Amino acid sequence: MDCGGSAGHFATRRIGCRRPSAFLLTLVVWAGFISPSGSFAAGATRVLSFRHFSTEGYTRLVFVLNRESNQFRSGRLNDPPRIFVDIPSGRLQSGIRLPRFKKASLARKLRVGRPDRKRMRLVIELRHAEIRHRVFTLPEPARI
Predict the structure, then answer these.
(1) CB atoms inside a 10 Å sphere around CB 133
(2) What is the C-alpha to C-alpha distance for residues 86 and 115, in angstroms, rounded to an integer?
(3) Alpha helix ranges (H) inside the chain
(4) How large is the greatest C-alpha to C-alpha distance in the chain, in angstroms?
(5) What b/e readout covers 34-47, taking b as 16+ CB neighbours within 10 angstroms?
(6) Is 5 within the bounds of a domain?
(7) From CA 22, how far away is CA 58, in angstroms rounded?
(8) Contacts of 94-99 spanning 24+ positions with Cβ under 8 A
(9) What's the half-sphere exposure (Cβ side, CA atoms, 13 Å) at 118?
(10) Residue 94 pLDDT more than 80?
(11) The CATH number of the domain where 108 resides is what?
(12) Given this model, what pLDDT does residue 49 score?
C-alpha cells in the first residue's frame, strides 16, 4: 500500500505493510559543502560519504553529498526486498567505502549501480519485506 508522496523540495514516500509500526528505515541525504576549487565536475552530484545508525526496529542511513539534489527519485522493489534512490548525474567520491551493516540493522547491504549513463542508483537491500521506509529532504543544510 502506498501511503502517499510528493515531488519537489520535500519528497516523502512511505510504504505500508502488514505491521506498519514494526520497522522503520529512514534515509536522509545530507548535502555538504565543497570549496569552489574542488575537483568535481560541474553538474555532478557526488556522494562524499555514508553514515548509518541502527537500533532494534530502526535504521537511519545518511548519504552526504557535495550539493543539493532535488531531482532524486526513490522507490521500493521486491523479491528480494530493497529500496532504491536514483540521483541524476550522481557519482561516488573516489575512495569512498560502502558501509557494513550489523545484524541489528534493518539494512542488509548497500549497492551502487548505474542503470544508465545519466543516473546513479543506490540500492539498500532490506532484511525483511515488512519494513516501512521514508526518504525526505530537509533544508539548511540541504538533505534528501
Answers:
(1) 24
(2) 9
(3) none
(4) 50
(5) eeeeeeeeeeebbb
(6) no
(7) 9
(8) 96/47, 96/48, 96/49, 96/50, 97/50, 98/50, 99/50, 99/51, 99/52, 99/61
(9) 4
(10) yes
(11) 2.60.40.3500
(12) 85
17-73 pLDDT, tens per residue?
333 334 566 766 554 433 333 444 467 888 888 889 999 899 988 888 888 877 889
Residue 123 resides in a domain: yes
Q: 63: domain range? A: 24-136
Whether residue 14 is contained in a domain is answered as: no
CB 81: neighbour CB atoms within 10 A?
Answer: 19
Residue at 90 is within a domain: yes
* Structural domains in the chain (count): 1
Look at residue 69 in the predicted model and tell me its pLDDT.
79
d(CA 38, CA 52): 26
In the structure grid, which three cell numbers stand for residue 87, read together? 540521483
Would you state the cell numbers that stand for residue 106, as one nine-digit string? 534493518
